[in-house]
Fold each of these.
Amino acid sequence: DVRLVESGGGLVQAGGSLRLACAASGFSSADYAIGWFRQAPGKGLEGVSCIGSSDGSAYYIDSVKGRFALSRDNAKNTVYLVMNNLEPEDTAVYSCAADRGGYSGEHYCTAIGFYGMDYWGKGTAVTVSS
């Protein structure tokens, strides 16, 4: 049974930090591209940070560069998103997704890439208060 389960969301004050986890089961996440996405209230889905299966480093959208960091822990079959210096604009439901394709992280973080991803989690809510 293939699953992606996100955890680590919550309520935090502006300037605070959270670490989100995306735990995979039923497949090896190390062989997949993984992306983190968010959907803010009343807005569409947005790619935040993505890494291809053979990428050495992750892609980040401009608004989170220098604040967010994606990492893989292949031994735990888990991908993390560390979010520092959070801003109220980061408030959203964060989801992770996985894809067996060989595209770059940048590809998966764009709409043409992420809508075709193989597996999706249900998301974890992040609320940043001002």
Amino acid sequence: QVQLMESGGGLVRPGGSLRLSCAPSGSAFSISPMGWYRQAPGMQREFVASITFRGITNYADSVKGRFTISRDNAKKNTVYLQMNSLKPEDTAVYYCNAAPSLWGQGTQVTVSS
């Protein structure tokens, strides 16, 4: 069964950094756009960033200039989300997505002093 395995979440102070990883199993995603979404308590899941196979990226306005999405096509299309200058409002469960509808289990990111 094809899966997306996220890692890298945790607790960080405001202004700190974290890097999330998403490692797909199987080769079905070699050309799929992939992305990150997040869901805070009581809120709907929202788009964070995406990247195409060719490396074209897109970001939510709330994370532009702070987050960077990247993709290693040589490593089974592992996708990373480098998060810098983290704010308390970035606290959420972060989910990896392989277009159109495959999701990981989520990884918690908590930004708190």
Amino acid sequence: VQLVESGGGLVQSGGSLRLSCLASGFSFHYSALSWFRQAPGKEREGMACIHGTDDNTVYADSVKGRFAISRDNAKNTVYLQMNSLKPEDTAIYYCATGSSSLLTSDALHLRLWEFPSSYNDWGQGTLVTVSS
């Protein structure tokens, strides 16, 4: 399994970026794909998760309405569109893959998708810096 993120960079507050995660070595079937971020001195936190084949998505409250996760199965790529960026969005952003069971109703109730331990494979990360 390999996950390669790209698209990070420096952007002004209020700006937008689109991150990409190119996946290989596994099928999107039976998978969930998520974006996490980790700011200096803070724990890794889940931003958004999408089912590998249906339209199920879920977002952290901190980014709901500003970020959008999507995927292109033909390109084996997951995206994170980030709008209205704030300085507090500055972090290294990672994509990760786990089981599609993370998006069942029971798992969503327990918010399992937000826990890094729920995922088997990770990318190397891409840095996003938002200037004020």
Amino acid sequence: QVQLVESGGGSVQAGGSLRLSCAASGYTYSTSCISWFRQAPGKEREGVAAIVTSGANTYYADSVKGRFTISADNAKNTVYLQMNSLKPEDTAMYYCAAVSTNPWPCRVVAASNSRKWFPFWGQGTQVTVSS
């Protein structure tokens, strides 16, 4: 049974930082792509970052490049999203998503409707950034 468990969300002021964690289990973690998506009220769910766990290739949406960093601790089957210089527009529910066996969806995480390529999802963690 695949499980993705997010943690680390919270409320911060603009300019602050948060680190999200996604603990994965129940599938072949070592050859997978793990990603972070977010969804603000009334908006589509969008991919913001992804990492190939076998080679640590990373991919980002333009809106977060230079501010967010995705990383993986393969010994713990855990992926992190370090978010710096947070803006009010970063406010959203953040979801961890994964695909096993073939990590190619990592490359298109920021594309429109990329969520369809990720079959496994966590429950989400809320991030609120106040101005």
